[in-house]
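pasting for the record
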Amino acid sequence: MISPILRDIFLLSLLMAVSLALSTAAESSTRADFFEKQIRPLLIAECYECHSQESGKAKGGLVLDTKAGWEVGGDSGPTITPGDPDDSLLMQAVSYQSQDLQMPPKTRLTDEEIASLHRWVADGAFDPRDSEPAQPAHTAPTGLSLEAGRQFHSFRRLSLPKIPEPSDPTLARNPIDHFLLSRLDEHQITPAPLADRRTLIRRAFIDLIGLPPLVQQLDHYSSLPDYYPLLIDDLLDSPRYGERWGRHWLDVARYADSNGLDENHTYGQAWRYRDYVIDSFNRDKPFDQFLIEQLAGDLIEYSNNETKTGTGFLALGGRLLAERDMAKLEMDVIDEQIDSTGKAFLGLTLGCARCHDHKFDPITQADYYSLAAIFKSTENFTTTDTGNKRHWYEHAIGTPAEIAKHSAIDTEIKELRRAAANYKQKQTVKLRVAARERATDYLLACLDLPFDATLSDARAVAEPLDLHPRILHHARTHLEYRRDDLAVTHWHHFAAQQDREGLVTFYTKKFAQAIDAYSKARKNNPKAQRLDDPELEAYRIAYYDTAGLLAVPTKPSHAFDKETLAEYETLRLKAIDFESQAYDAPAIMGVSEAAETVDEIPIAIRGSHTNLGKSVAKAVPAVFHKTTTFSSGRSGRLELAKWMTQLDSALAAKVYVNRVWAWHFGTGLVDTPDNFGVLGRAPSHPELLDWLTHWFIDSGWSTKSLHKLIMQSRFYQHSSHHPAAQPLSELDPENRWLAYYPTRRLQAEAIRDSILHVSGRLDLTQGGKTLQLRNRQIVFDHTSVDRAQYGSTRRSVYLPVVRNHLCSLFEQFDFPDPTMVTGQRNITTVAPQALYLMNSEMVTRSAETLAKQVIEEHATLSIDKRVDHIYHSVLGRSPIPDELKLAKTFLTAADNLETWTLFCQSLLMSNEFLYLN
């Protein structure tokens, strides 16, 4: 018999191969999306003018509008080394690392744009343009024509296929099986046998509620003769169902509790959208209603606080709140909304048409700006702000008393902040005065420092003289780079002569004259800011300029001594801690109708809001057979949402049905669920997808009914092991025909929740605010204390999702990028995942809790019985003889809590626990 270790190695190898196959399409879609959204527009805006076939120019022999262009490169050779940004000429050029190679030549790219290019190159420089033919000068490649587009599967009118008759109808339990069996018949493949009862019970539990069955539950359903329909109904009725399936939708909605793109401000009311989604799934809200509420919940006839909360979908995206150009910020937010709406509900990358006609799909730039006119008439920001950071829109729902309480706390927070700021200012002024009083000492000490002195060099000179090292270091640098200043020129004269006594005498006199002259000038005119005598004015500046010769460091940690810094930090953290726990008046994060709506907006040439072309009116993309009318004086969001639910192609319904299928089987019938366009994969079973879409609409857009239909099919109940595995791996390596149920690793949340659940540590409290920070408070800006906490034992759906700083378990187990719509997560199997589970405090505490239960509650049982109990608790089965023998050998060597804890942890880390069969 194969040893458990060898079996685990074999299973791990097999699962790695399966995981790689399953993730390939999703990874390609994500890379293509990143290229179309971030890279192609940047190349067009900044490079094509001088380096493209479209412009007819190839300066330096380089063209960048084809993949072959950068592969061959120009006069300097290949422009990009995929996977190695540091070795890529492109990155050297845009980073301005050399005086001889700086691109674009007139204006350096922003840090965000450079970071996007760096990420693209580091990820392998994925470029879908390799299939694009060379274009004549001034002729840009375009996507499908309107006529061809209407024949593409995403835009065709929905058909109602006839249910096929398979060769062996006895194998079919419902129409889904007929379609899938007929495809297998084409290749003379017999489906896998049915899974055993316990496997199917665990599959249904994890699939519908994200938790494995406990021993009592497993025994209960296993004992019932006709258990399966009852099992499905019970799980769908559980409040845990909405937590599991609501989390799926939160991936699509790019849910997060912070904005993430600058100082990471807290979305303090985002949790209301999360709870709205969970509740909507628990109540089986019809998906067409769910869709309308998320785009226009503030505009529908029955609008209330619940439906307004749905508009959080449009507000939750990542936003660069510190953007100073409001026109740009507004168009960036609109772009994010169009892109997210298109992917989430229509499976289309509409955002790719911001700068140009879509390169693949039949979506024009005019189509994009017709949609942009709708979102242009949507209110996304309030009139309040914090400095140069805009506040996102919120519907106020607090009572006058709640609002007054909120205002009073705001005042108290300001006072606490002011106390810290005043202390900082007072101590900075104290340092500044002390530095001025010893101005000549600093100048004299600079004689002992070379111009390229390090801070350590400055500290060695400053400390014996009781000078401030950083002020001294800055003063020496200032003297070097401001040689032409009159007050600095004389220092270099004395330095050349090494005339220390002359330097002291000269500067003592000049500073005294400047101080005296300035004092008299201010006495005659309190508003005087400078001296008329240019020489004395130069010395006044050298003495008084807070950013000049004697500048005090702006960072408190650089400026203050330990005692002063500790006092300042005490005051600062007192303000932050109070704010973190402070009361927030109730509000709903969402959008509203703009005070001034527009009926049309101009097309932004190449996506630049400063280069505008002809105007286009509000409209839906022309490729769709069904259009709609937009009333003047209204945003049009409600008309847009209703149009999506009434399309002849039923694309919104089809995309959602495909998502539900993918969340059940790991892969959709279209395995690029966010992209039903040309770059997406064609449906594996197009007739089945159309039939399911029809059925879903006829069912009243009921998600729970769709679950029942899918889960009661024979194919959902198949075993994950097929007797003809080897031939199948060659015929259908990705298991697209579903000859057997696809094995897949649990998602991050299910792993964490399952570990807590089987150990009895899971807190099942529902809903409410979970990021304990005040609305708009900074979470983490790389200079302040990280205030995001992940130690809760509540379900993972209630853990904060902080952009740029996710929970470490989420990061390890493929949690999606919360700035992007994600309908299908990547699945990886890498060594750090096992290392994380070995060292995680959450895992070790759970294992210890489970071990204590066995030791304390089953102390009278034999080791065999205790091992059996743990196997049932974690894996839902008894150990096989080899496993029992191995466990007994390990546990009898040292029968104590530590040994039992390690044994429990090994099962919690096992493939059998972490994978769904």
